[in-house]
């Protein structure tokens, strides 16, 4: 048993370090984009169109990952695209977590009519196809980061609600909850002081997973020109542009696609590592 727990902790530590390093790199690049970017993300020069990365012949100094068809620096646009991805991930992830967690705790602990109402609301909400629902919301609200965040929150709060409700139901049957009630704790105090800390590892894992999902959703909406303006650098927009010139300039598609994949994977692995590290049972 001890060897098994040690192996879990070692795996959790490896996931935390690897995913945390990549996410830290993305955050630092996004925060200090004006300082670390080698070029202007909107500057165009058709004479420099589709330059290859630095290790290939005919590369141009200063354009480390090459240029797109309009002569814009790929590395610079990826750095500024990380800003958009992180803003959406943080704002949409936190808002979704707060709404879904609050409703899930109420439904799982108080049960009764609250659980029935919230459960029916979740069932109705999940009947809508999420991608079509997001496109419909963007069409109503208009394009822009705020509309993307609102669409993600409106669609994804049900994921938090269902998982947190199930975990709260499970924790409500534990002996420590009955002991707290016998000790004179009110229901609200029992929920906040006893149940919530034990549900927190699941919430953290869901939050990081939701941040990765938010990055994907923003990239999808950027891919179909339903996020920020088409000139603004986004990973989804770069992927859409690179798709049209993959045989002439594969790097325009490959590098933002790799950044998107690594960021989403790192969010998921970071959450799993945190859950394994701080899970009370494993400790």
Catalogue the unreliable spans.
none
What amount of the residues lies in strands?
under 5%
- CATH structural fold name: MetI-like fold
From the alpha-carbon coordinates, what is the Rg to the nearest angstrom? 22 Å
Fraction in helix: over 70%
Biggest sheet features? none
CATH hierarchy, class: Mainly Alpha
What would you give as the CATH superfamily? Answer: MetI-like
So how many helices? 10
Task: Give the number of domains.
Answer: 1
**In the CATH classification, which architecture applies?**
Orthogonal Bundle
**CA-based shape:** elongated
**Extended strand count:** 0
Output the helix-strand order: HHHHHHHHHH
Structural class: mainly alpha
Distance between the termini: 12 Å
| Mean pLDDT score | 86
């Amino acid at each position: 048993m001890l060897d098994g727990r040690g192996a879990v902790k070692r795996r959790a530590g490896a996931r935390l370090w690897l995913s945390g390093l990549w996410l830290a790199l993305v955050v630092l690049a996004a925060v200090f984009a004006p300082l670390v970017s080698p070029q202007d993300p909107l500057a165009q020069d058709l004479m420099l169109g589709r330059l290859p990365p630095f290790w290939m012949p005919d590369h141009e100094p200063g354009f480390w990952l090459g240029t797109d068809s309009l002569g814009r620096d790929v590395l610079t646009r990826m750095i500024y695209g990380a800003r958009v991805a992180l803003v959406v991930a943080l704002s949409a992830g936190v808002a979704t977590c707060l709404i879904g967690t609050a409703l899930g705790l109420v439904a799982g602990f108080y049960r009764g009519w609250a659980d029935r109402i919230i459960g029916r609301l979740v069932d109705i909400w999940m009947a809508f196809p999420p991608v079509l629902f997001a496109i419909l919301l963007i069409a109503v609200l208009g394009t822009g980061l705020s509309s993307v965040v609102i669409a993600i929150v409106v669609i994804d709060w049900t994921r938090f609600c269902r998982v947190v409700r199930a975990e709260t139901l499970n924790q409500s049957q534990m002996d420590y909850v009955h002991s707290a009630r016998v000790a004179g704790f009110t229901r609200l105090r029992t929920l906040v002081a006893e149940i919530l800390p034990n549900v927190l590892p699941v919430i953290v894992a869901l939050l990081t997973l939701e941040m990765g999902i938010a990055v994907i959703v923003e990239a999808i909406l950027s891919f179909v020109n339903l996020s920020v303006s088409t000139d603004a650098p986004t990973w989804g927009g770069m992927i859409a542009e690179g798709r049209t010139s993959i045989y002439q300039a594969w790097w325009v598609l490959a590098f933002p696609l790799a950044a998107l994949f690594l960021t989403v994977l790192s969010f998921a692995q970071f959450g799993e590592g945190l859950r394994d590290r701080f899970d009370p049972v494993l400790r």
